[in-house]
Amino acid sequence: xxxxxxxxxxxxxxxxxxxxxxxxxxxxxxxxxxxxxxxxxxxxxxxxxxxxxxxxxxxxxxxxxxxxxxxxxxxxxxxxxxxxxxxxxxxxxxxxxxxxxxxxxxxxxxxxxxxxxxxxxxxxxxxxxxxxxxxxxxxxxxxxxxxxxxxxxxxxxxxxxxxxxxxxxxxxxxxxxxxxxxxxxxxxxxxxxxxxxxxxxxxxxxxxxxxxxxxxxxxxxxxxxxxxxxxxx
Length: 233
Hints:
The chain is mainly α and 233 residues long. It is 61% helix and 10% strand.
C-alpha cells in the first residue's frame, strides 16, 4: 500500500505543488530492488542535496544565534545537530518512517526505525522541500527541530562528558552499553600513557589516549561519537 503523503504533508505543515518530489524523498533503494518497474528513482540524489542544505542552513542559524561563539564551538555544535542520530530523532518526531517505500525484507528487519535510513530520508525530505518551496521554507521547517535541540545540546555542554553522551546514545538506539578496554600502558609510573578502545557490541568504535584511563576513555568515546555520526547504523 502506498504511503499517505497527504497525511505526511499535514504532519509537516507543507503542501507540495509537485507531489512527485515528496514521493521521491520517500523511496528507499531496497524498494526498487523488489519493484524494478516502479516509476520513481530512490531518494539518494535528494539525500545528497539535503545533506548540503542542512550543513548550510544549520550553520547560518548558529552563526546568527550565537554571534560571540568561536569557530570551533560553532563547528562542534553544528556537528551535534546534523549527526545521523539527531536527524533520526527529528524524523521520528514526524513519524517519517511510516511513509517510506521499503522492501518487505528491510521492513521486517526493522528498517523503519534504523538510524541511517531515517536520517537519510530526513535529508531527502529537506531537499524536496527546497526544490518545491525554496530555501525559506526549509529554514521554517527546520526551526521546529533546531531551537529545542540546540538548547539541549548547549545546556549539556559542547565539551562535556563524551562517555555519558555515548552511553545515552547507545542505550537509546542500540540497547547496549559501551565497554572500555585498556589495550596499552607505557611510560614510567609518574608519566603513564594509556590507550583505550571503546567497544559497542562486538566492534571497536573508537580509540583514545591520555595520561589517565579516564582521559583516554573520554577521547575514545569522542572518537566513537564522531564515527557514529557518519555511520549508517
